[in-house]
Inverse folding.
């Protein structure tokens, strides 16, 4: 491939297209907007130098030179616009959350698989906290496909429901939950899940959020014999299915490459919601 | 055709195993490699203490291969041996435990601990990007000699040494490896990649190791030369993506080979592809694997 394009004058755009196929190619993005509804949470909007396109559930690797690189599932990744919901959980995400408008960051990808949006016409989306980004992208794409979408969306408080207006736009109905009772129903997203399932009778359930919440959604879906997919969070290092830090056990599946989206049947038979590997590869409990 | 091969007393159902650092971090991953057809499985390099590894980016694809600077992340030898011993009976193929000790005392303790669970030990003397480990150990002849001896004295099975791809260094220090049973040739080449827009090295550790296509002819030349100079059994490793790449290593003198980067490109199905390709080749050429080994040399 390299010999091919380097021996011919293909023009800049074609050359970049081929480079992106055969190597890790970073696209530079300039931060246009940093909306911080809370101290530790930011919605970042980047204007990219070149187009990038990501399906709902897929992730990109977001790099800040001298700080680090983290995996993020975008809420918008289309053409030259990239929207990321970032929570400050470590050194690199802290830097992202506090990034000043006009600063640059670098992105490669997309990586991994994505939610199956062609499995039916009735989708129940269950989103918790900062995990909501890929579910929002799914909601937007489903509404373009004229699917019937019901969303259950929860967070600690009203301020944590950063995508509430967007979900309202793309869903037939949104059930909002806050843990402190400041908005919508009081409690966690899984509180009335069985009732919603029983009345809406969805064909597919998609979920992202804290792992214990997702485990509950998966268990409920499997119990109701409804096809379910969850996008899981693991420590992603190589993003290429090589290093093994993101392993799902006992199957030995890799969240970075075989996932991050897995079906309920796979997850229910795994250590999902129980244990995961730390940065050193040590088995640690999920709380 | 029969694909069974032997290295320093251990028998492999076929000559293909994973390279250390690639899918060897947990028992679940080693088991997946076994199920995919690997002839032996090799663990991630285990150090004395727990290591978190380097900050991301740790792995990037470049035009001629891959660069990585994982930084030897591992839970430490005590934790890892616990995990391995609880599942040892699940392995029908030899388990080769890779260790990266920084001094003989550590080597002794680690070898003794892995005695019950490892069929062979591979000493990492060649990681190009870890302080006081791997390549930094190898550059000290006396230290290498003592580490190899410590492992040998405290472990019953064969001891392999994984070498760097640098010819002059390897030939200059080869005497320090006298007590090891087999050579694994070779590890990655110290390398760097810079992003032109960020204007910075991409890897978190700045320097990393180059693997993949570019490494293949370099490792191959070293295998060829070491086969004549040492007569120790050799495990070839470097950029093997197809059965032809592997056959080149056998002809140069390797008794078995390891697959690393190609697992990124082709996934674990590569083992099936290599086995079928080699079987077909041996049948067509009417030759056994054993006869093939070292055949490229003038008798």
């Amino acid at each position: 491939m390299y010999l091919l394009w380097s021996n011919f004058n293909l023009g800049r755009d074609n050359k970049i297209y081929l480079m992106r196929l055969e190597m890790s190619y970073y696209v530079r993005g300039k931060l246009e907007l940093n909306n911080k509804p809370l101290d530790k949470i930011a919605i970042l909007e980047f204007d990219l130098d070149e187009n990038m396109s990501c399906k709902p559930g897929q992730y990109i690797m977001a790099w800040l030179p001298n700080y680090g690189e983290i995996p993020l599932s975008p809420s918008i990744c289309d053409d030259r616009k990239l929207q990321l919901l970032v929570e400050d959980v470590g050194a690199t995400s802290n830097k992202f959350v506090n990034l000043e408008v006009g600063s640059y960051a670098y992105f490669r990808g997309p990586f991994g698989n994505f939610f199956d949006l062609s499995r039916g016409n009735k989708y129940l989306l269950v989103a918790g906290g900062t995990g909501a980004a890929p579910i929002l992208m799914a909601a937007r794409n489903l509404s373009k496909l004229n699917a019937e979408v019901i969303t259950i969306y929860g967070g600690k408080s009203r301020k944590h429901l950063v995508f509430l207006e967007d979900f309202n736009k793309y869903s037939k109905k949104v059930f909002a939950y806050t843990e402190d009772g400041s908005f919508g129903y009081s409690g966690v997203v899984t509180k009335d899940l069985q009732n919603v399932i029983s009345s809406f009778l969805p064909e597919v359930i998609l979920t992202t959020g804290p792992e214990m919440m997702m485990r509950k959604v998966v268990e409920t879906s499997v119990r109701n014999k409804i096809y379910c997919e969850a996008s899981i969070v693991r420590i992603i290092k190589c993003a290429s299915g090589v290093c093994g830090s993101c392993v799902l056990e006992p199957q030995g599946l890799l969240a970075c490459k075989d996932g991050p989206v897995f079906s309920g049947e796979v997850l229910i038979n795994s250590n999902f919601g129980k244990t995961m590997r730390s940065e050193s590869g040590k088995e640690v409990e999920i709380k | 055709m029969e694909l069974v091969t032997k290295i320093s007393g251990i028998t492999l159902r076929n000559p293909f195993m994973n390279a250390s650092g690639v899918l060897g971090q947990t028992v679940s991953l080693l088991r997946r490699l076994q199920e995919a057809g690997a002839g032996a499985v090799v663990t991630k390099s285990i150090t004395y203490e727990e290591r978190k590894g380097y900050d991301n980016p740790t792995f990037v694809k470049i035009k001629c291969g891959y660069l990585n600077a994982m930084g030897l992340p591992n839970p430490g030898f005590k934790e890892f041996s616990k995990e391995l011993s609880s599942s040892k009976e699940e392995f029908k193929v030899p388990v080769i435990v890779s260790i990266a000790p920084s001094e003989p005392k550590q080597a002794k303790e680690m070898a003794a601990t892995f005695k019950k669970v490892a069929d062979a030990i591979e000493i990492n003397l060649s990681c190009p990007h870890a302080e006081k480990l791997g390549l930094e150990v190898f550059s000290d002849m006396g230290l290498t000699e003592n580490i190899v001896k410590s492992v040998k004295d405290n472990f019953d099975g064969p001891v392999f040494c994984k070498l760097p791809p640098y010819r002059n260094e390897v030939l200059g220090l080869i005497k320090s490896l006298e007590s090891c049973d087999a050579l694994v040739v070779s590890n990655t080449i110290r390398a760097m990649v810079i992003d032109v827009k960020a204007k910075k090295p991409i890897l978190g550790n700045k320097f990393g190791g180059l693997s993949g296509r570019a490494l293949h002819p370099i490792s191959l030349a070293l295998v060829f030369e070491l086969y004549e100079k040492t007569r120790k059994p050799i495990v070839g490793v470097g950029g093997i993506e197809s059965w032809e790449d592997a056959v080149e290593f056998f002809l140069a003198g390797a008794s078995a080979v390891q697959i690393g980067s190609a697992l990124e490109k082709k996934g674990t199905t590569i083992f099936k592809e290599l086995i079928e390709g080699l079987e077909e080749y041996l049948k067509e050429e009417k030759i056994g694997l054993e006869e093939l080994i070292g055949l490229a040399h003038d008798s």
